[in-house]
Amino acid sequence: MSFILQENLHSALAHLRQSGIHEVDCQQLAVSTLAILGSGHYFKPHNPVFVIACQKEENHG
């Protein structure tokens, strides 16, 4: 799952907790793009993205 809004991230984490999924990995990624600024260059920032990784336990039955 990936989100750009913290509210969506919070909702997803709450849903995973309520679903009994405890092993959750969450990362925030920030990307910038090199752009021209006057006679030089700078890294123009983009909105951060939140990424959630989780795995549901397999039933061994």
Largest sheet: 3 strands, antiparallel
Which ranges are low-confidence, i.e. pLDDT below 50, for 5 or more consecutive residues?
A: none
Specify the number of helices: 1
- Strand tally: 5
**Helical fraction:** 10-25%
Q: How confident overall, as mean pLDDT?
A: 90
| Structural domains: how many | 1
Rg over CA atoms, rounded to whole Å, is: 18 Å
Overall spatial form: elongated
Strand fraction: 35-45%
Computed structural class: alpha+beta
N-to-C order of helices and strands: EHEEEE
Q: Strand order, main sheet: write it out.
A: 1-5-2
The separation of the N and C termini measures: 28 Å
InterPro entries: SAM-dependent_MTases_sf
Protein name: Cobalt-precorrin-6y C15-methyltransferase
Enzyme class: transferase
EC number: 2.1.1.-
List the helices and strands and how they pair.
Blueprint: E1 2-3, H1 6-18, E2 24-29, E3 32-37, E4 40-45, E5 49-54
Antiparallel strand pairs: 1-5, 2-5, 3-4
Structure commentary:
The chain has one helix spanning 6-18; strands at residues 2-3, 24-29, 32-37, 40-45, 49-54. The chain has one domain. By secondary structure, the chain is α+β, with helices and mostly antiparallel strands. The longest helix is centred in the N-terminal third of the chain and has 13 residues, at 6-18. The mean pLDDT is 90. The protein starts with a strand and ends in a 7-residue tail after the last strand. It has one helix and five strands, in the order βαββββ. A hairpin with a 2-residue loop joins β3 and β4 (40-45). The radius of gyration is 18 Å and the shape is elongated. The strands form two sheets. A three-stranded antiparallel sheet has the order 1-5-2, covered by helices on one side. The chain has a two-stranded antiparallel sheet with strand order 3-4.
